[in-house]
Amino acid sequence: xRVDDTARTKSRHESDPPPLDAEAQQRLIADIDDAIIxxxxxxxxxxxxxxQLRVADGRPRKALxxxxxxxxxxxxxxxxxxxxxxxxxLRML
Length: 93
What we know:
Layout: H1 3-14, H2 22-56, H3 64-78, H4 80-91
Helix pairs in contact: 3-4
């Protein structure tokens, strides 16, 4: 690690919020989970609508090239477990 990297890391940690107690951390996680559930439902509805539009336009219900790009994106951002997550999301309607 270079000196300037150490300075950046130190300043970033100095600006971090103080640690929360366990109960507050659980509430934070529950709030994040609620947001994820909301977004998954929203994504599922949007995906269903997209499939309807494709079919109405005479195209296949699924676009495999687009789904593959979703898989690559999740894997690139989250590693191997990201692929599993993307596959779950793609199956949810």
